[in-house]
Amino acid sequence: MDPFTFGMVFTGVTGGSLLAIALLDKGGVKINEDLLVIVLEIAKYGSILYLLKKLSMLFL
């Protein structure tokens, strides 16, 4: 998957997940916000590492 497509897919999946979590929270389901922040940060750093790996292939 090229970096541009990866960015679009990652943004869409993250937005959809946050929308689903917001609807669950509004519906009365208790959401652990600390765990949510940790998962989103790990996903962000993972995607940055993936993009850096793809970019390094351009220069090597």
Write structural notes for this entry.
The protein is 85% helix and 0% strand. The chain has 2 helices and no strands. The mean pLDDT is 90. The longest helix is centred in the C-terminal third of the chain and has 27 residues, at 33-59. The two termini are 18 Å apart. It has one domain (3-59). By secondary structure, the protein is mainly α.
Topology overview:
Elements: H1 3-26, H2 33-59
Question: What keyword list fits this structure?
Answer:
elongated, 60 residues, 2 helices
How would you summarize what this structure contains?
This protein is mainly alpha-helical and 60 residues long.
Q: Helix proportion of residues, in percent?
A: over 70%
Low-confidence stretches: none
- Element-level helix/strand string: HH
**Number of helical runs?**
2
Radius of gyration over all CA atoms, rounded: 15 Å
Measure the end-to-end span. 18 Å
**How many structural domains are formed by the residues?**
1
Strand content: under 5%
Helix-strand makeup class: mainly alpha
Mean pLDDT across all residues, rounded? 90
Q: Can you count the beta strands?
A: 0
State the major sheet: none
- Global morphology: elongated
